[in-house]
Amino acid sequence: MNNKNDDRDTSSKWTQWINDGITNEYINYYDYNEFQNITCIGNGGFGDVYRANWENSNTVVALKSLKNDDDFMKKIAL
């Protein structure tokens, strides 16, 4: 059975993995403030999907908000 220390270690590992992905530019990060008219259009097992206008280009985009879940993190790491 996992204890809280194991959970923190795992969470820290995945947080570092995401930060490395952003730093190395294989994961795109955009500040929430760059988007307007954000509306939830769906949700699923891994997170929520939103429709928004990207302020820089007035382009309509879909945003995915990911859940902080170990199973999800293992799947995207594959």
Structure description:
GO terms for molecular function: ATP binding; protein kinase activity. Residues 35-78 form the Protein kinase domain. The protein has 78 residues and is an alpha+beta fold. The protein has helices at 4-23, 70-77, and strands at 35-43, 47-54, 59-66. It has a single domain (4-77), classed as Phosphorylase Kinase, domain 1. The protein has two helices and three strands. The radius of gyration is 15 Å and the shape is globular.
What is the topology?
Layout: H1 4-23, E1 35-43, E2 47-54, E3 59-66, H2 70-77
Antiparallel strand pairs: 1-2, 2-3
Q: What is the rounded Rg? A: 15 Å
| Separation of the first and last Cα atoms | 24 Å
CATH class wording: Alpha Beta
What name does CATH use for the topology? Phosphorylase Kinase, domain 1
Low-confidence residue ranges: none
The tally of helices reads 2
Residues in β-strands, percent = 25-35%
Largest sheet: 3 strands, antiparallel
**Named CATH architecture:** 2-Layer Sandwich
Strand order within the widest beta sheet: 1-2-3
Counted beta strands? 3
Q: SSE order, as H and E?
A: HEEEH
Task: Estimate the mean pLDDT confidence.
Answer: 81
Structural class: alpha+beta
Shape: globular
The residue fraction in helices comes out at 25-40%
- Give the tally of structural domains: 1
